[in-house]
Amino acid sequence: MAVQPLILGIETSCDETGVGLVRGTTLLANAVASSIEEHARFGGVVPEVASRAHLEAMTPTLQRALDEAGVTLADVDAIAVTAGPGLAGALMVGVSAAKALAIALGKPLYGVNHLVGHVAAEQLENGPLTEPVVALLVSGGHTEILEVTDIATAATLLGQTLDDAAGEAFDKVARLIGLPYPGGPHIQKSAAGGDPSSIRFPRGLTSQRDMNRHRYDFSFSGLKTAVARWVETAERDGVTVPVADVAAAFQEAVADVLTHKAVLACKERDVRTMVLAGGVAANARIRDLTRERCAAAGIELRQPRLSLCTDNGAMIAALGAAVVERGLPPSSLDFGTDSSLPVTEVLV
Ligand code: KG4
Ligand code: ZN
Question: Is the CATH number 3.90.420.10 carried by domain 6-121+308-325?
Answer without folding.
Answer: no
